[in-house]
Specification:
Distance between the termini: 71 Å
Order of helices and strands: HHH
Strand content: under 5%
Helix content: over 70%
Number of strands: 0
Length: about 90
């Protein structure tokens, strides 16, 4: 595909009005600029959703070992502190 390939998209009248309105609000010079900005926003949103899903899956995968590690470290958190020095004043 060439770098500046022309394409034509037919939109219903309501969507043409939406594009024209966004052109004015965004200060875009062309309808193509409005469509490009919309496509970039959609891509960023879907990338963010995919990343959030991947983080959630990774956290779920290591949860059991993380809880075990934290429980093991609990006994060390107050090691060497006596009752008086651990009180909040």
């Amino acid at each position: 595909m060439k770098s500046n390939t022309k394409s034509s998209i037919t939109l219903p009248p309501a969507e043409v009005l939406l594009v024209n309105g966004l052109m004015k609000r965004l200060g875009a010079r062309t309808k193509v600029e409005v469509v490009r900005r919309g496509l970039n926003l959609l891509k960023e949103t879907t990338d963010r959703i995919a990343l959030k899903t991947a983080y959630a899956e990774a956290a779920k995968a290591v949860r059991k070992s993380t809880v075990a590690e934290l429980s093991e470290l609990d006994s060390w958190s107050a090691d060497g502190l006596d009752d008086e020095s651990s009180e909040i004043r």
